[in-house]
Amino acid sequence: MSDAAPEPHWLTEDEMRAWCAWRRIFPLVNAEIARDLGKDSGLSEADYDVLSMLSQCPGRRRRISGLAEHLLWSRSRLSHQLTRMEQRGLVRREEVVADGRGAEVVLTEAGLGTIGAAAPAHLESVRRHLFDLLTPAQLEALIQLGDTITARRADAPPCG
């Protein structure tokens, strides 16, 4: 009986190239878009994520637990983020009157105005740093890649 570990299933040359590309693409594109967002609107990525999500919810509100789950954040991280945003008047927390057990985060009018003002420049940045660089076939491949990977994750929230 051998104590030797089984040989790793090494990546092929193409798999290694793809893995390295993935590892470069995400932080590069994310950093460029985040830099533009801060410069153009003064918002962080976290601010934008929360404001954008709430602006799409019915009544511009969502249970805090559901928002944390959707963003794939811990409740603690979201709580700290919401505190900073509340101090700026962008959101407020309210108890859920119907059951008295949970809390919701509500987008304020100031928050709605902030996301409305930030969105056009942010979307231009997303276009400039990502979509304008892709062919239609590459865009379709990116969509399929996202669908394939997220479909395997039962806890992956839908986009939006």
From TrEMBL:
Question: Which ranges carry the HTH marR-type domain?
Answer: 1-151
InterPro entries for this protein = HTH_MarR-typ, MarR/SlyA-like, WH-like_DNA-bd_sf, WH_DNA-bd_sf
Q: Which SMART domains match?
A: HTH_MARR
Give the protein name, as stated in the record. MarR family transcriptional regulator
